[in-house]
Design goal:
With 222 residues, this protein is of the alpha/beta class. The protein is 42% helix and 15% strand. α4 runs antiparallel to α5 and α7 packs antiparallel against α8. The longest helix is centred in the C-terminal third of the chain and has 19 residues.
């Protein structure tokens, strides 16, 4: 067992979840900003602040800028130093630990094998440079075509981001007419097995052997 002594807490502030306030005409992002502003304006030296994914309801650069500024504000406040847990997928914020001496990065341990991931649910020191959104979408049952296309787009964006040539207009178009064989690796294998088959010269025994070969391919899929 491990424990931590955090001292006396007079207030617990949380900004978690995503919801809009339709009755007041407030968007999800406006609600998030209103609640965050309330937290920042009512801090004390013994406050505990829990913030989750601040800035996600707007454009990426706006969101990163706001999240970055909030972390700096909490760290550099002239009167209060609230204990804060700030969860984010903006990997750019990892760099704040090198700039702000009381900022410490932690990430949730993940094990990867082949194209699958396993969340260990254990915190370890250090920032994460990789998100697993596509993996989570796959675990949620998203259609395979969507997952494959998302992977292709992500690879393109990451490749061109490194070259400072990020241009979404130049993302290669998706082939919306993929055949069943092209959509599934298993069927590609079956297609290759049948590709050069001449049914006019095939003997009954050879046909049975070929069917048996295809059955084995399908059994491997299971």
């Amino acid at each position: 067992m491990q424990s931590a002594t955090i001292g006396l807490i007079d207030k617990v502030f949380t900004r978690v979840g995503a919801s809009d306030n339709i009755s007041k005409g407030e968007s999800t992002f406006m609600t998030e900003m209103t609640e965050t502003a309330s937290i920042l304006n009512n801090l004390s030296d013994r406050s505990l602040v829990l913030m989750d994914e601040i800035g996600r309801g707007t454009s990426t650069y706006d969101g990163i800028s706001i999240a970055w500024s909030i972390v700096e504000y909490l760290h550099n406040h002239s009167k209060v130093r609230s204990k804060t847990l700030f969860a984010t997928h903006y990997h750019e914020l990892n760099h704040l630990s090198a700039k702000l001496k009381r900022v410490k990065n932690f990430n949730v341990t993940v094990k990867e094998f082949e194209d699958k991931i396993l969340f260990i649910r254990k915190l370890q020191p250090g920032g994460s440079e990789h998100s697993f959104g596509i993996n989570v979408a796959q675990m949620a049952g998203m259609p395979k075509k969507v997952i494959k296309r998302a992977c292709d787009v992500m690879k393109y964006l990451e490749k061109n981001k490194l070259k400072n040539q990020l241009d979404t207009k130049s993302i290669p178009e998706s082939d919306l007419h993929l055949s069943l064989f092209e959509a599934e690796p298993t069927f590609i294998e079956i297609k290759n097995a049948l590709k050069n088959l001449d049914i006019n010269t095939l003997s009954p025994i050879e046909a049975l052997l070929k069917i048996n070969e295809i059955q084995k391919i399908l059994q491997k899929k299971r």
